[in-house]
């Protein structure tokens, strides 16, 4: 698996979309890999809380939530920054709502979120993915503090929230993941000494992007 920057990954995804693999399908594939991974653990995930931001990383998390629910897992979704802002992510939120999966707003229902976490064996970090840089806002640090507390396993989708994918810089309050799932390609922070402790075990996964879509990196 190659190591690529965030901008290179965006180009790879654009190449894939132009070759016929839609962004919608890439999101579906990413979420499916996350759900499959959690269900393959020993013991398999029986209860999960998905923390979702408002970008496409949240969409990956919504897909995972839907597929975990279909597999018999008890699932709760937490919106950490209001409603999602991309079309694919909004559609996947509608799908999980139609299934009756509970959706909480963190800022308005913090106590309920904390209660849900007490009964969960795993949490999914689908807040920022590779879109994070700089420092976590105070409101988001409240989210990551709750997410990090309790000692349960955490699966970060593409990158732990609070870690910059390109530089490996770690914001105070960053998520400390048990596993980080690297979609399609590794990112620099997956390999940098300062960010590795926050990534935990790196799990590289294929999301269906054809090999020729990576040729820009040659």
SSE run = HHEHEHEHEHEEHE
Strand order, sheet with most strands: 3-2-1-4-5-6-7
Largest sheet: 7 strands, parallel
Query: Into which percentage range does the β-strand content fall?
Result: 15-25%
Number of helix segments? 7
Mean pLDDT: 95
- Oligomeric organization of the protein chains: single chain
Counting DSSP E segments of at least 2 residues, the number of strands comes to 7
Spatial extent as radius of gyration? 16 Å
Total number of domains: 1
Choose one word for the global shape. Answer: globular
Which topology does CATH recognise?
Answer: Rossmann fold
Protein described:
The protein is an alpha/beta fold. The protein has a single domain (6-10, 27-210), classed as 3-Layer(aba) Sandwich (Rossmann fold). Helices cover 38% and strands 16% of the residues. The chain is built from 7 helices and 7 strands. The chain has helices at 6-19, 23-39, 56-70, 87-98, 110-118, 138-148, 196-199; strands at 47-52, 74-79, 103-105, 122-126, 153-157, 179-183, 201-205. It has a 7-stranded parallel beta sheet with strand order 3-2-1-4-5-6-7, sandwiched between helices. Strand 6, helix 7 and strand 7 form a beta-alpha-beta unit. Helix 2 (23-39) packs across helix 3 and helix 3 packs parallel to helix 4 (87-98). The longest helix is centred in the first third of the chain and has 17 residues, at 23-39. The model has no long low-confidence stretch (mean pLDDT 95).
């Amino acid at each position: 698996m190659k190591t690529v920057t965030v901008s290179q990954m965006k180009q790879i995804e654009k190449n894939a979309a132009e070759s016929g693999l839609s962004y919608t399908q890439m999101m579906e594939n990413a979420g499916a890999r996350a759900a499959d991974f959690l269900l393959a653990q020993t013991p398999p995930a029986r209860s999960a809380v998905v923390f979702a931001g408002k970008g496409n990383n949240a969409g990956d998390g919504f897909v995972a939530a839907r597929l975990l629910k279909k597999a018999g897992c008890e699932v709760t979704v937490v919106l950490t920054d209001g409603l999602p802002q991309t079309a694919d992510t909004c559609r996947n939120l509608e799908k999980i709502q139609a299934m009756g999966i509970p959706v909480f707003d963190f800022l308005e229902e913090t106590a309920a979120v904390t209660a849900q976490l007490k009964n969960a064996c795993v949490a999914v970090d689908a807040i920022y993915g590779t879109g994070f840089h700089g420092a976590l806002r105070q409101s988001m640090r409240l989210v990551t503090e709750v997410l990090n507390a309790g000692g349960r396993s955490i699966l970060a989708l593409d990158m732990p929230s609070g870690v910059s994918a390109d530089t490996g810089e770690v914001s105070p309050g960053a998520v400390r993941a048990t596993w980080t799932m690297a979609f399609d390609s590794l990112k620099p922070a997956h390999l940098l000494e300062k960010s590795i402790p926050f990534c935990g075990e790196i799990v590289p996964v294929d999301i269906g992007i054809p090999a020729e879509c990576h040729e820009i990196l040659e």
